[in-house]
């Protein structure tokens, strides 16, 4: 079994209603997010690849374009712009095109936060 991962980053702003640090979170603020999408399966015998990285990159570019430099509160099917919802949203967007999808992780490296979703 092989795992193949690809990462991308995006810059985005949002607001968030929280109990702790409530006031700063309610104001519009932004983060640099990194997302890692992992596939799992057996490589195709003829090519030796689980998936051509060019295809992988194109699928992720479509998702990145919907997030990068956007106000996440305006993405209708995201819900509150939490890391949890971002991981699940990315999963829903890429899963139809990446049937070997195993995991989606979202990172905010500046603050050391990680959230992974495995369907």
* Count of spatially separate domains: 1
Q: Whole-number average pLDDT?
A: 93
Give the strand order of the largest sheet, numbering strands 1, 2, ... along the chain: 3-1-2-4-5
Distance between the termini: 18 Å
Secondary structure class reads alpha+beta
| Number of separate helices | 3
Q: Percent helix among the residues?
A: 25-40%
- Strand share of the residues? 25-35%
What is the level 1 CATH name?
Answer: Alpha Beta
* Coarse shape: elongated
**CA radius of gyration:** 15 Å
Please describe what this structure looks like.
- The chain is of the alpha+beta class.
- The chain is 27% helix and 34% strand.
- It is built from three helices and five strands; from the N terminus they run βαβαβαββ.
- It has helices spanning 22-26, 53-67, 83-94, and strands at residues 2-14, 29-41, 70-71, 101-108, 113-117.
- The protein has a five-stranded mixed beta sheet.
- Strand 4 (101-108) and strand 5 (113-117) form a beta hairpin.
- It is elongated and about 55 Å long.
- It starts with a strand and ends with a strand.
């Amino acid at each position: 079994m092989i795992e193949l991962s690809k990462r991308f980053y995006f810059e985005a702003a949002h607001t968030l209603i929280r109990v702790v640090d409530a006031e700063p979170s309610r104001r519009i603020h932004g983060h640099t997010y990194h997302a890692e999408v992992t596939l799992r399966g057996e490589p195709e015998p003829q090519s030796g690849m689980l998936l051509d990285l060019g295809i992988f990159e194109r699928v992720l570019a479509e998702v990145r374009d919907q997030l990068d430099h956007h106000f996440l509160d305006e993405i209708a099917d995201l819900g509150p712009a939490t890391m949890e919802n971002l991981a699940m949203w990315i999963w829903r967007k890429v899963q139809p095109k990446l049937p070997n999808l195993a995991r989606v992780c979202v990172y905010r490296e500046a603050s050391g936060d990680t959230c992974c979703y495995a369907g």
